[in-house]
Design goal:
421 residues; alpha/beta; 22% helix; 33% strand
């Protein structure tokens, strides 16, 4: 890449690199400095970013993922101008609002009221605009009762509310959001994501750093995976999320390259999926499922090493790649058991078919117990079914329902002309 980006590109990084110098020993007292005035301090180099290049289209939600220490936050700080990159070039188009690190841009000795006004001006509003939007900012943050409290007395969650509220009220074209959203409570997190969905619908560009792969797949159009400062993958959010899982549970020193990640087959670590299918109420496999009738999603797995309480996961996606139904044995207290090498298990989930007419694909996974999403075996889009029905619901599902209406009594002519008794 060379030269300025095209008009439909909001963010572009070209060969960005950043290295930090880390001292091997710390001279922290005056006595140490006096006793050893000529001692040479040795340093190690930490290459946080290595030749990182990518583009983000205008109006796109772009995820940045990777393990701790992979360079995600460093990249965001370089884009925001907090750090200066050692090499490479960056272009950002439009007004930018960063939400990168808790407390950045806030003065702990000022009240929330003053911090809101100062930060809003720093993010591009005029002082008059900041004052006019102050009430709306505090309404969103739900902190009116603490407006005159100094920020150093705020909890981390209260600071998140305040900072995020300022960010979404400055009408920025580009939002840079690091993992600090994880500090807020669940209700406020949902409130934030609702706002981000509206920002996306309004055509704003969003860069989102997160460890939550569910949010990446649900919210992002594309994503970038970093490992030790290098770009491992850029592409579809669901694909990058799977690559993240592979890198996250790889052996120490094992870095997935461009062709790394989960194998394309049905085997990964300790198990092999031998069959995946969708069946109707009679147990028949096929491509047709009647709307409104019972059906089941099934998998058969052969274990190759001992395991206790593995997790069986099945997900159904539509023709646009959207997950419309997912089930996991992790949610069923009665599921699980002890399995040894050579054991073959059939697992599945039955349900009444409320899906709208169309084609669906089934992805099956067997995961290691204990959470974390470490994959034992996976088969992506391994089975297909077509839901048939006479009604085109227009939505993802066609939930059983009944219409009702109540016709108001029509007024009599006498009541209309006022001649009634």
């Amino acid at each position: 890449m060379s030269g300025p980006p095209a008009d439909d590109i909001s963010v572009r990084a070209d060969g960005v690199s950043k290295t930090f110098s880390l001292p091997r020993e710390q001279l922290s007292t005056l006595k140490e400095r006096v006793l050893h005035p000529t001692r040479r301090r040795r340093h190690d180099e930490l290459r946080a970013l290595r030749d990182v290049s990518f583009e983000v289209r205008t109006g796109e939600v772009f995820g940045i993922v990777g393990r701790n220490g992979s360079g995600k936050s460093t990249l965001m700080k370089c884009l925001a101008g907090i750090y200066q990159a050692d090499a490479g070039e960056m272009w950002l188009r439009g007004r930018m609002a960063p939400f990168i690190e808790l407390g950045v841009g806030f003065n702990p000795d000022l009240t929330a009221h003053d911090n809101v006004l100062v930060n809003a001006v720093m993010l591009g509003l005029t002082p008059d605009e900041a004052r006019r939007r102050y009430a709306s900012i505090m309404d969103f943050a739900e902190l009116h009762d603490f407006a005159e409290l100094k920020l150093k007395n705020y909890s981390s969650g209260m600071q998140v509310r305040l900072a995020f509220s300022v960010m979404v009220h400055v009408d920025a074209d580009l939002l840079l959001i690091d993992e600090v959203l994880a500090v807020g409570d669940a209700a406020f997190q949902q409130k934030c994501f609702d706002v981000l969905q509206r920002s996306r619908a309004e055509g704003r560009t969003i860069l989102l750093v997160t460890h939550d792969m569910h949010q990446v797949q649900r919210f992002c159009d594309r994503a970038l995976l970093l490992e030790r400062g290098r770009v491992v993958a850029i592409g579809d959010a669901a694909d990058v999320a799977r690559r993240y899982t592979a890198v996250n549970f790889s052996a120490p020193g094992d870095v997935a390259g461009e062709d790394g990640g989960l194998p394309p087959g049905d085997h990964d670590d300790g198990a092999r999926l031998v069959d995946v299918w969708i069946q109707d109420a009679a147990g028949r496999r096929g491509t047709g499922l009647a709307q409104g009738a019972p059906c089941a999603l099934c998998l058969r797995v052969r274990f190759e090493r001992p395991v206790t309480d593995p997790i069986f996961h099945l997900a159904l996606s539509d023709g646009h790649g959207r997950t419309v139904f997912a089930v996991s044995s992790e949610w069923d207290d009665g599921a699980g058991g002890d399995f040894g090498p050579g054991d073959v298990v059939t697992a599945g989930a039955s349900f009444d078919n409320w899906l709208a007419p169309g084609r669906y694909e089934l992805t099956a996974q067997v995961l290691h117990p204990g959470g974390g999403g470490r994959v034992m075996a996976r088969a992506e889009n391994a089975a297909t079914a077509v839901v048939t029905g006479s009604r085109a619901a227009g939505g993802l599902v066609d939930i059983p329902h009944a219409f009702f209406f109540d016709r108001l009594n029509r007024p009599t002519p006498a009541a209309v002309d006022g001649t009634g008794g």
